[in-house]
Amino acid sequence: MHELRKDPLLGRWVAVFSNSLPPDALNVSSESIENEPCILCSGKEAETPPEVAAIRAEGTAPDTAGWWTRAIPNIKPILETEGELGRKGIGMYDRMNSIGVNELIIESPEHDKNPEDLGAEQFRRVLELYKMRITEIEKDARIRYVLICKSSGRLAGATYSHPHSELIATPVIPRLIKGELDGAKQYYAYKERCIFCDIIEEELRMASRLITETENFVAFCPYAPKFPFEFWVMPKRHGCAFEEASPEEMEDLSQVMTSLIKKMRVMLKEPAYNYVIHTAPNRIPRRNHWHTLGDDFHWHIEVAPRLMRESGIQWGAGFYILTTSPEDAAKYYKEA
Amino acid sequence: MHELRKDPLLGRWVAVFSNSLPPDALNVSSESIENEPCILCSGKEAETPPEVAAIRAEGTAPDTAGWWTRAIPNIKPILETEGELGRKGIGMYDRMNSIGVNELIIESPEHDKNPEDLGAEQFRRVLELYKMRITEIEKDARIRYVLICKSSGRLAGATYSHPHSELIATPVIPRLIKGELDGAKQYYAYKERCIFCDIIEEELRMASRLITETENFVAFCPYAPKFPFEFWVMPKRHGCAFEEASPEEMEDLSQVMTSLIKKMRVMLKEPAYNYVIHTAPNRIPRRNHWHTLGDDFHWHIEVAPRLMRESGIQWGAGFYILTTSPEDAAKYYKEA
C-alpha cells in the first residue's frame, strides 16, 4: 500500500508510491496523451474495473453499454479502501496508510464528445453522479474530504483524452482546501458573516468581474486568481455542501457550466483546463467539532484554463502573475 | 504600473498586468523557447537594459564583454522600483502598487554552457551575485522579501534558453514562503528548537534520504516533497539568511550544487528544473517585530526537477503524488 506523509513545515500531506518508478520512467516531454484504443469508451466496459455507480438508460445492466456517465475505481488507485489508517510517527515525521477512495468519473460514452457538447442535460447527469459518489463515500467516517477534479488536456495533467474527472477521497484535508477553510473561518470569526456571501454581494455590486447571473448562481472572474481567465461559479443560496444542492440548483448549474465551458473553449482555442468542486469536508466524523462549518463555508466550483506553464516563481513561492486582468477576462467572457 | 492584489481567502498576493493580454496571445502549446538571436549572450550587452551588477574580469567595463555573471533589470519587469506602495482597500479587497525589483541573473556568458558545466568556481560566482543583489535590495525598507529562482527548460517555466535565474523582490511575503516561516515559527514556539536543525539531525541519523554530507552542508531528499527527485541543500550551521553565508560555506555550497545538478541532469536526462533560495525576509524594516526570526528560520536551497505535469488534484487541492519515494530517489542520486 502507498503511504501518506506530512510535510513538517507546511502541514501538506503527499502520497508516496510503495513501488518507486526509476528515473528513466519519469521524464515526460510529449504533449500527447496516449490511450488508443480507449477503454473508457462505451462498449469497452469489460476492460475497466467494474463500475461503482452509473447513470444509465433504464433496463441496461451494469458494465454494459447504455450509460451516460459512469464511475469506476481508478485503474491504478492512489488510495485503497481496505485497511487501518495506521497513523504514526517516524522519528520527527508523521505518516499514515493511503486509505481512501480513488475513482474515475467517465463523463461521456463518446470519446470525442464532452458533456457540454452533448448539452446541459448530460452535464447535469455528470454533476448528479458527483453528488451520488460524495454522499456514498462520506458514509465512511475515516474519510475527511472528497475531492472532485476535472482535467482536460495534457497541460492540465489529464492522463486520458476521453472526457473524465477524478475523485480522490482522503483521510486528511488537502492543503489548499484547508487553507481556504481556515481563511473562511477567520473571516467568519471576525465579521460573523460568510466570506463567500460577501464576495457574491461585492461582485454583483461592482459588476466589473461578473460574467453572468442566473436565478441561483453567479459566475465571475475572481479578484485575485491564480490564472488568467479563471472563473468561479457560486450558488447564491448559502450552503456548505455541493451534495446538498437542490434539483433546481443542479439544473441551473448545468446550464451555467455548459455555457461557460463552451465559451472558454472557443475563446481560448481549446485550452487545457481544470475545474475543482470546492465543498465542505465530511461532516459525519466530527459533527461536534465543526458546528460552525455550515455557516462559514460556501460551496462553489473553480474553473481554470491552464494557458501558461507555471514559472519557478509561481511554483516555488506561490507568487502568481496575471497577464490578463480579471476585469478584462470577464469582458471577454461576456462578449464571447 | 501593474497592481498587486490579495486573495481574501488564502492571503496570497498576485500581480495583475495593467495592460491585459487578449485571449489569443495566451494559449501556449509549444515546448520550445524561442529566443534566437539570444540577447543574454556575451557580446550582446548593448541590447539588454544596463547591468545593475556583474562579476567580471578585472579592467573590463560595465555592459561590455568580460563578465562571468551579470544582473540586469528584467526586460518587462513585473515590479517597478519608483513610486509609493499605495496600499488601499477596494470594497472588501486589498491592493497595492507593484513596487519592487525584478531582475534577470545571467549565469553564464555562453549560451550552451551552464554554470555547473563551467565548474564550481563559476557556480560560486553566480551564488556571490545572488548575495550581492539580496544585500543591496534589502536596503530598501519597502521590500519585504527577495526571491531568487532558477528555471531551466520550458516545462519549468523558463522564458529564455540561456542559463539564467530570476530575482523578484516584493513588498509582501510570497505565500509559500510565508507558510514555511509560519510553520517554522510554530515549531519553534512549541519545541524551542529550529525545525530545520532538527530535520538535519534526523536526516543524518536515519541516513536513508541523505545524498551527501560535506563539512558545511547536508543534501537530502526531503521526507514529504512535492516532486519525485526533489532535493534540499541545507547548511549545518544555523543561520536564517543565505546572504550571511561565510566564504567557506559559499565555496562548499558551489561544490555541492555543481555536483548534484550535474548528477540530476544525467540521471533524469536533462530535465526541466527549478531551484529556489529559501532565505529570511528582509529584517531591516521591522527588526523589533521579528526578533525571533534569526532563531526559527534556517536558509536552504530547494531543487526540483519538473518531470511530470501537475495534475488537477495537485494544482487544485495541493495534494501531491510521488511516484518515486524520497528514499529511492536518494539511492539513485548516490549511485549516479
Provide an overview of this structure.
Chain A has a ten-stranded antiparallel beta sheet with strand order 3-4-7-9-8-13-14-12-11-10, sandwiched between helices. Chain A has a four-stranded antiparallel beta sheet with strand order 2-1-6-5, with no helix packed on it. The first copy, chain A, is of the alpha+beta class. Chain A has eight helices and 15 strands. The first copy, chain A, is globular. Helix content of chain A is 27%, strand content 23%. The longest helix of chain A has 21 residues, at 247-267. Chain A has a single domain, classed as HIT-like (HIT family, subunit A, 2-Layer Sandwich), CATH 3.30.428.10. In chain A, a hairpin with a 2-residue loop joins strand 5 (88-90) and strand 6 (93-97). In chain A, helix 2 packs across helix 5 (247-267). Chain A has helices at residues 115-118, 120-137, 175-191, 195-206, 247-267, 293-296, 312-317, 326-335; strands spanning 3-6, 13-16, 53-56, 67-73, 88-90, 93-97, 101-106, 145-152, 164-170, 210-213, 217-220, 231-235, 273-278, 300-305, 320-322. The N and C termini of chain A lie far apart (48 Å). The interface between A and B is large, with 97 and 97 residues.
Q: Any guess at the CATH architecture of chain A?
A: 2-Layer Sandwich
Assembly type: homodimer
Number of strands of chain A: 15
Uncertain segments of chain A: none
Shape summary of chain A:
globular
Helix content of chain A: 25-40%
What is the topology, as strand order, of the major beta sheet of chain A?
Answer: 3-4-7-9-8-13-14-12-11-10
CATH superfamily of chain A: HIT-like
Q: If interface size is counted as residues with C-beta under 8 Å from the partner's C-beta, which chains form the largest one?
A: A-B, 97 and 97 residues
Mean pLDDT over the residues of chain A? 92
